[in-house]
Specification:
Elements: H1 5-16, H2 20-26, H3 30-51, H4 63-94, H5 103-111
């Protein structure tokens, strides 16, 4: 296999332009992503079952423990969306200029599922 310094330099320039959040998700190991995107939400859901009332008529029925669990669930959802955004932006930057995705449509598509 031949070493291609120009391809390596292009890759290094591309990595240098990523912002901090995307860099965090793209450089994470597979087990770190598994803990963040799978184990953390499952543990929050399991903990929430003990704090959630069986009949919920209003958000005021949650109590402080329920609100904390609800906040942690939102954090887990935002982590998943941020990971999807980082992967999509990175893969979009790898495309040839004529084939790149229109970024405004991409951002709308990311916001649509949680809404």
């Amino acid at each position: 296999m031949d070493y291609n310094p120009s391809a390596n330099n292009a890759f290094q320039r591309m990595l240098a332009t990523m912002n901090g959040l995307a860099d965090l998700f793209l450089r994470a190991k597979h087990w770190q992503l598994f803990l963040l995107l799978f184990v953390f939400p499952i543990l929050v859901e399991l903990a929430a079952t003990g704090y959630m009332p069986t009949t919920l008529r209003s958000w005021r029925d949650l109590g402080p423990g329920g609100l904390v669990c609800l906040g942690l669930m939102w954090i887990a959802m935002l982590c998943l969306i941020a990971w999807l955004w980082a992967m999509g932006s990175f893969l979009n930057s790898l495309q040839k200029p004529g084939l790149t995705l229109k970024l405004p449509l991409f951002h709308v598509a990311l916001l649509y599922p949680p809404v």
